[in-house]
Amino acid sequence: MDESSHEFDRHKNGHREASAELEAAMTMDENLNGLQAFDRLGEYLEANNWHPQRLPDKYVYRTVFRGTNGTFVCYAQIRTDAEQFVFYVLAPVKVPESQHMLVGEYLTRANYGMYIGNFEMDLSDGEVRYKSSFDFEDVELSDELIRNALWPAVRMMDKYLPGMFKCMYGGISPADAIEEIEG
């Protein structure tokens, strides 16, 4: 057999395995549109140099974004059963418990007036993240939808991170930090 025949067999077997995986997944409250969306998300991330890494046994990709003000770990998740896309951008540091109130006020002020997404802080460990999400029920996930969720999220984290640091380490009030950023 020539090399192209081997490649065809590998592709055919891979397709059978993927189909079996799709069928098995369908029995676990997942649906075809959600599973296809996860594949589409992976293709988009690869094609646009996000260098995604799939998390084992989850419909989540991990990636890293390097902005002007920091490097951020990001998670792109497809909730296959609910046909929802969720994108998280994590701040590079956790907020110490003694700073929770201060940073909480800062994030609340930052969130006010945002149209796409929001900041969140986990009060149990101080993790700060920006979340952008949307529902794509009965709609095919497109590159445009993915792009329009990813880019605002990384831009907002990159834009507002310096103000968070100024509140935490620079003695600046949340109101002044927001004023400095938003003008």
Radius of gyration: 20 Å
Strand line-up of the largest beta sheet? 1-2-3-4-6-5
Major β-sheet profile: 6 strands, antiparallel
Share in helix = 40-55%
Q: What would CATH call the architecture of the largest domain?
A: 2-Layer Sandwich
**What's the helix-strand series?**
HHEEEEHEEHH
Helix tally equals 5
Average of pLDDT: 88
β-strand amount: 15-25%
Instruction: Please identify the top-level CATH class of the largest domain.
Output: Alpha Beta
Tally of individual domains: 2
Structural class: alpha+beta
Can you tell me the CATH topology of the largest domain?
Yope Regulator, Chain: A
Q: Could you give the count of β-strands?
A: 6
Spans of at least 5 consecutive residues with low confidence: 1-16
> Roughly how many Å apart are the termini?
68 Å
Coarse morphology: elongated
Which features does this protein show?
2 domains, disordered N terminus, Yope Regulator, Chain: A, alpha+beta, 6-stranded antiparallel sheet, 20% strand, 183 residues, elongated, 6 strands, 5 helices
